[in-house]
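cron nightly-structures :: item 1 of 1
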Amino acid sequence: MTTPTLELAIITGLSGAGRSTAAKCLEDLGWFVVDNLPPALLSTMAELGHRSGGAVSRIAVVVDVRGRAFFSDLRAAVAALDTRGMQPRMLFLEASDDALIRRFDHVRRPHPLQGDGRVVDGIGRERTLLAELRGEADLVLDTTDLNVHELRAKIDAAFGQPRTHRLNATVVSFGYKYGLPLDADLVADCRFLPNPHWVEELRPYTGRDPQVRDYVLAQPGAAEFLDQFAALLHLMGEGFAREGKRYLTLAVGCTGGKHRSVAMAEQIGARLGADGIGVRVVHRDLGRE
């Protein structure tokens, strides 16, 4: 008799960034969710899941600074699960300082780490405390500009279906003048290519239109960049799979996020898809001008 596969997810990140919303989303998707679980009990939860005989096959736990002394044990607990052949997925939620301050002001509650200081002091302490953990997360979501429905959509895309072993990538085009996507794992700068904005007949169009796409791809270095970048992503994808990382956010930027980055993001997305990677292409700043 085959032992049912148990999926584990860890929800963590900055206070006020949306952990509770993420937990509710996973609960709606059929996950068994435990809030504020001490990391030392992760193995116990996994064992209970195995004993359920498949009745509980997807467990998500919320771990945050409310655990205080327990929180420092999270990495050790995850390592212990790894030695047992279980690789929990870690979702890390964050947002800008301004967004977090507004959210704490709205609910009129202190930050759990601010002590006698201000909310911004607590946020700074928490960022420092979680810096290494953020780097080890499988998926980092920046909720600064996300409403509840958009956050739910991202959670659904990442956790709605049973776990697969292939890499899933989100390719985000953006404009540098609007700032870097904070949740990007990799950033590709397309400003080395001529800007279609300065070609009068191309200015009204976007990188999705064939006129702009053909212009961008015909520029010196464009095809070589795509070939070499795709080869690099293939190599990295194989490494991520070996390390158990299932999610990659790739940001592709140009000045305004309308022409070059959009065209190149579409091309990169197509190549990743042909390489067997699950791909979602998002044009963050298209139509923003």
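cron nightly-structures :: done
The two ends are 59 Å apart (CA to CA).
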